């Protein structure tokens, strides 16, 4: 099989890219994400038609946030777009006359990293994507594991704190309430209120108020040595690493790959994640340790992964 298209549906933009068998992106097209479910489908079709001009395309893979069924056709439930049992594959196929597969976006990103990024050479890889929330993907024995109903790897909603913080999913104490971009902002706000004298750089980057502190300010301040920003990343890393130790008990992979915006911080966040992972790994002194690696494909992992999964048919 030759060229396929990967589609990444983001909150503000839909990106489509022509991808070859080596995982290289040959062309891309971005369109704004419409507000209505039907509008999103039209926009996907438009982006695919635009980017495919001049290429011989064999299939399209769409990475969608939410629960995708085991047929890789229907989005059962999407938290951010109002999709409930949305027949995404059929609707897009009707518009573009190419075979379409739908994948969970975190699964697509995991596959991209496994095949072309940090996971190259590993057979058993667990990926977590720390963005606004926390997503995951499972590759065991060189296969993406979707589970019987297609919805495996939703690590963000594992309950890590009984009766803990309320989550958007309706549960309490979910992992993504403690290890996500949103949690990072909460940690920074709490620490800046408690010790504003340690948050001077952080406060100088926003609008001067503690409530005005956003994720990008915390990243910039941490790089400049702001104690509150650095400690906020460490707190996130403690929760992330402890969760990886639990996932090692479940899956025993040779590598964990940490992606999403947080991984852009590199060792600032990866080192404390590794430390926490070692701290909580059961029997850690007596067993081999999985590597904890930073993702390599950045924001393109999902697009490249979805395209490659479409190629697999
Ligand atoms: Zn939850």
Automatic annotation (TrEMBL):
Q: Which family is this protein grouped under?
A: Belongs to the ROK (NagC/XylR) family.
What species does this protein belong to?
Answer: Streptomyces varsoviensis
Which top-level group of life is the source organism from? Bacteria
Q: Which InterPro entries match?
A: ATPase_NBD, ROK, ROK_cs, ROK_glcA
Keywords from UniProt, A to Z, are: ATP-binding, Kinase, Nucleotide-binding, Transferase
Q: Does the keyword Transferase apply?
A: yes
Q: Does the keyword Cytoplasm apply?
A: no
The cross-references to Pfam families, in alphabetical order and at most eight, read:
ROK
EC number of the protein: 2.7.1.2
Signal sequence residues: none
Its name, as the record gives it, is Glucokinase
